Amino acid sequence: MMTSLITRRLKFALLAVLACVCLLQAGGVARAQTQDFQVPQPTGNAVNDFAGVMDAETKRRLENILINLKREQQIEFAVVTVKTTEGREIFDYALAVARRWGIGPANDEKQGLLLIVAIDDRKYQTLVSRHLQGELTDGTVGSLQRQYLIPAFRAGNYGQGLMDTARSYIDTLAEKRGFSTASIYQDNQANTSQTPQSSRRRTNTGGGMSGCGLAIIIIIVLIVLFSSRGRGGGGSGCLNLLFLGSMLSGGSRGGWSSGGWSGGGFGGSSGGGGGGFGGFGGGGDFDGGGAGGSW
Question: CA 194 to CA 292: how far, in whole Å?
């Protein structure tokens, strides 16, 4: 009788472990689809011209504006140019940059903006963090892009197009939130006398479950199952397993990495180096709001 009971429990335990592994691996596959490509490392500045299409003066002035915006309104705004996304959808690429870089202060609101363009692909995308979407709606962003970005880009004036588009976003926020842009647009040469530095950040690159993580799951499942024997049956064990399964299912969105459990999505960064701008704060609170297209 006892042997039969133990055998049934072991079979149930193995099935439960298998189910948990499947849940975690499914989450790992979903994450791998968005994390199996590289994005550039942030320079520590607000303006990251990896494609080299901005003239030095426009780049300096835009950097100065975005430094002032961060200081006065706690809004982190990143402008990024790349040559190509290497076949990736510009939206997916932008979302990876926004989350991996952790654009937005690490406070309750995590206000962040990302304007990214892929020059050779002739595509652009603006992402708006959740706490700015009330003012910068998808429709508003798209309209401003058509008004300022597309005409300038078609004429080959990339720096001016980025400057005018960024300012149009700031002007819209200022109008709707009631703050002045005078000091934000004030040119302060001292603010931008900086040398780009690599951000010191935590990179969330986990794409699956480690052997250690699997062992922990097996141990937890076995403890839950066999501890229920002393409480009069498997009913409580089943309930515990259901709870464990739901926890693992939700947690699998963050994924297991070689270092343990990592945060959901792409995670944020832990701040970073840089001069006047000082790197990004680690917010990364982006859910897809914004607009994009091609020119």
Answer: 31
